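anyone seen this seq b4? input:
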Amino acid sequence: MSEKRRDKRGRILHYGEIQMTDGGYRFKYVDVNGKERVVYSWRLDHKYKLLQFAGESGDIADPWYTGNFDVTYGDVARGCEGLLKQLNNE
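predicted toks r here
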């Protein structure tokens, strides 16, 4: 069993995250076009779930399990609308 990777403060680093020698963090990912992207940050930010922006809790329905893409579309649409409202208010 492999040990989970941790930063200098003991927080578990997820796939694509590394802590650099200067204490900052780097996150590497591949975008929808297949191009590698890198994001640098001085802190690990709180992760939000899309439905939180719609004032709901829980996860977006997975159409693989539910067999209903309309429910998933509705979840995503409500979350995106809530996110846009929040961004417009800032």
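Strands lie at 17-19, 25-30, 36-41. Helices lie at 63-66, 69-89. kinda curious what u guys think
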